[in-house]
Amino acid sequence: MDLAHTIMSMIDTNPARVMCRTCKSEHNFKPKKGAKEPGAAVEKKPRATRTKAADKVVSVEVEWMKQINASTKPMKPYAPTGAFSAGDKLSHPTFGEGIVQKLIYPNKMEIIFRNDLKILVHAGQRAS
Questions:
Q1: How many CA atoms lie within 13 A of 114 on its CB side?
Q2: Does residue 20 sit in the same domain as residue 64?
């Protein structure tokens, strides 16, 4: 907030003490932040441009398409009792075609579908 002040005393050509016209209090003169001399315009530093997070993020659909086209494995139908491994292609009745990204011990797997990542159950590995 820039309030009006009355100069009470000066040192050379610079104000030393001022009085606030709003509250009538007296204090030492404080120049605006960034101003080198009293009354000088405040220099603004140019802001660094930010890169948008959306520019860096690859959409799920693009990643899904890349992996589906690169996979040579046959399509398996999804069943909770089926056993899958990372890289397997599967067909889900609700979510469509997907690829197993990783297995989560003991019986879950992360699958990338066209629109989303899902975690589904499967038969998993037996503990020995």
A1: 6
A2: no
Backbone angles phi, psi at 20, to 5 degrees: -75, 130
What CA–CA distance (Å, rounded) separates 93 from 78?
Answer: 8
- Is residue 26 domain-shared with residue 79, that is, in the same domain? no
pLDDT range class, residue 50, cuts 50, 70, 90: low
Range of the domain at 82: 54-121
73-100, pLDDT tens digit by residue? 999 999 999 989 899 999 999 999 999 9
User: Measured between alpha carbons, how far is 99 from 74 in angstroms, rounded to an integer?
Assistant: 11
- The answer to whether residues 16 and 63 belong to one domain is no
pTM for the model stands at 0.53
